[in-house]
Amino acid sequence: MAAAMKSDFPEVLQAGRRAMDRWLQDFAYQTSLDWWIFLAAAVFAVGVALCTVSFQAVKAARANPARTLKSE
Length: 72
Hints:
The protein has helices spanning 2-24, 35-62, 65-71. By secondary structure, the chain is mainly alpha-helical. It is built from three helices and no strands. It has two domains: 1-33, no CATH class; 34-72. The model has no long low-confidence stretch (mean pLDDT 83).
């Protein structure tokens, strides 16, 4: 899955940039879209995903299996 994300990232980056450029053209005040904005968004999204998965993994590892089966 990580390999697929690595190979698709440049394509998604270009599509996002084109979509944002088209959307921002309609505004009276223009701003530039630098490459680091998209990189920062991607790093933030991956960081949130890793933190979420790590938290759930630690939570599941620390849980008492007997208590979990008893409550089901």
